[in-house]
């Protein structure tokens, strides 16, 4: 029964987009290491997309390099001769250094090789964001244009918000665009909202622990845009009318005599009428009052599709020319990086942000694609992940690019090169830490699936 209810279409779309997105990011990241290693005369033994323990899905040797695709979509690698990496090829390191090996190259060349992947990921993100702005522009919803206010879901009601409220300030700072609300909330430990209610300002303060709960739910069940319930189309195979019928443009304002002027009100009310026949109050042609008898199915559905909220609210859209999109994309990318770093910092400084609530594996990452193929969303998420991949890889942790870069900088400053044995142990410690973190994140996601 559970399998029948599972949304395989959404699952397939998420998996497909995840694999495509990360294939692009990983391939280009590793290409950065590959091309700079070749540039400086290093021999590259392997270039792999995804990891390949025990076997590869595909491999082919061209020249001195084996190119392949692994079966574990958690990363990729290039194996450069004379470099202590995840392959842990200790035997090769016991042999005398050769001119084509990584360890034979000057420190500045090794530093460039190690940072090339990070640089490519960061530049790629800026290019992606620039092209997104060039292709689709930038669309935002000004708070001033939300004439129907918000729909307060369960968590919003819990904190004191109500349907129809208009959030105008967060922590006494003007909220100009509704789109900025999530990141503004996440970057502050203690939040106070100023809402316009019945023409007056009302203050809503988050109680202790609420932000942690909100973060855990990824802002779901909080607030959304409220809009009228106007019929866009009717599914003839599902809708069952006992008298009259709904037509395109009808505005549903009541159910069995109870007012439900907005779509959110109506959607909540339908849950109380599963398997029953109801009388709908409808405004037709903006003037006529009509009664329509309808049967609600056992799942609480009526069999119609409402007009989207965008039809009732004016968004602010900015288009960019090709030249304009470049500085705008750079600005957008830098802003996303700053937000990510701020969020990461809060994990270690805030009592409200718990690491376990914010940590996720490939399962969580896959879900961010939204369950359907939307190219704007796909490229936006790919750009964000490219920024994150660049930042995480530059952290000074052994086994990451940043760890290797740190040891190389130490060598350049002190003139002393860390020994091969030290590098082996550092690589092992880093790999254990990373694999442990990945296993922990995967365990958290599995636990959330069955929770």
TrEMBL record:
InterPro entries to which the protein is assigned, alphabetical: PDZ (IPR001478), PDZ_sf (IPR036034), Pept_M50_Zn (IPR004387), Peptidase_M50 (IPR008915)
Compartment(s) of residence: Membrane
Enzyme class, spelled out: hydrolase
A Gene Ontology biological process term: proteolysis
Superkingdom, natural source: Bacteria
GO terms, molecular function: metal ion binding; metalloendopeptidase activity
Keyword field: Hydrolase, Membrane, Metal-binding, Metalloprotease, Protease, Transmembrane, Transmembrane helix, Zinc
Domain PDZ: 125-199, 208-286
GO cellular component terms given for this protein: membrane
Topology relative to the membrane: Multi-pass membrane protein
Transcription found in the keyword field: no
Record family assignment: Belongs to the peptidase M50B family.
Annotated protein name in UniProt: Zinc metalloprotease
Organism: Niabella ginsenosidivorans
């Amino acid at each position: 029964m559970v399998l029948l209810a599972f949304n395989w279409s959404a699952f397939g779309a998420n998996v497909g987009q995840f694999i495509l997105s990360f294939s692009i990011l990983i391939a280009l990241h590793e290409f950065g290491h590959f091309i700079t290693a070749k540039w400086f005369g290093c021999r590259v033994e392997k270039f792999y997309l995804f990891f390949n323990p025990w076997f590869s899905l595909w491999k082919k040797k061209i020249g001195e390099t084996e190119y392949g695709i692994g079966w574990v979509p958690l990363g990729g690698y290039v194996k450069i001769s004379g470099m202590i990496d995840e392959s842990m090829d200790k035997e090769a390191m016991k042999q005398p250094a050769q001119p084509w090996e990584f360890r034979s190259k000057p420190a500045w060349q090794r530093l460039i090789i190690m940072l090339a992947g990070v640089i490519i990921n960061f530049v790629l993100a800026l290019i992606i964001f620039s092209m997104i702005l060039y292709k689709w522009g930038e669309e935002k919803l000004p708070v001033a244009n939300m004439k129907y206010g918000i729909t307060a879901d369960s968590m919003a009601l819990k904190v004191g918000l109500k349907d129809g409220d208009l959030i105008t300030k967060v922590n006494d700072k003007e909220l100009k665009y509704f789109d900025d609300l999530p990141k503004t909330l996440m970057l502050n430990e203690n939040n106070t909202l100023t809402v316009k209610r019945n023409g007056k300002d009302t203050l809503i303060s988050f109680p202790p622990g609420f932000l942690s709960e909100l973060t855990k739910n990824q802002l779901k069940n909080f607030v959304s845009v409220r809009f009228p319930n106007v019929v866009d189309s009717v599914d003839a195979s599902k809708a069952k009318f006992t008298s009259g019928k709904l037509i395109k443009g009808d505005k549903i304002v009541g159910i069995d005599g109870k007012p439900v002027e907005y779509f959110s009100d109506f959607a909540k009310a339908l849950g109380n009428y599963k398997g029953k026949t109801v009388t709908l109050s409808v405004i037709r042609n903006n003037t006529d009052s009509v009664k329509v008898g309808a049967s609600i199915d056992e799942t609480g559905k009526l069999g119609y599709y409402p007009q989207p909220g965008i039809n009732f609210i004016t968004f602010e859209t900015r288009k960019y020319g090709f030249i304009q999109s470049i500085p705008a994309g750079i600005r957008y990318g830098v802003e996303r990086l700053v937000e990510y770093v701020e969020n990461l910092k809060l994990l270690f400084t805030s009592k409200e942000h718990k690491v376990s609530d914010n940590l996720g594996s490939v399962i969580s990452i896959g879900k961010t694609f939204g369950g359907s193929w939307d190219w704007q969303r796909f490229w936006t998420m790919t750009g964000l992940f490219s920024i994150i991949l660049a930042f995480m890889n530059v952290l000074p942790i052994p086994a990451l690019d940043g760890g290797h870069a740190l040891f190389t900088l130490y060598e350049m400053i002190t003139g002393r090169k860390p020994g091969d044995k030290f590098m082996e142990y550092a690589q092992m410690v880093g790999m254990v830490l990373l694999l442990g973190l990945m296993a922990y994140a995967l365990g958290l996601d599995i636990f959330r699936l069955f929770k």
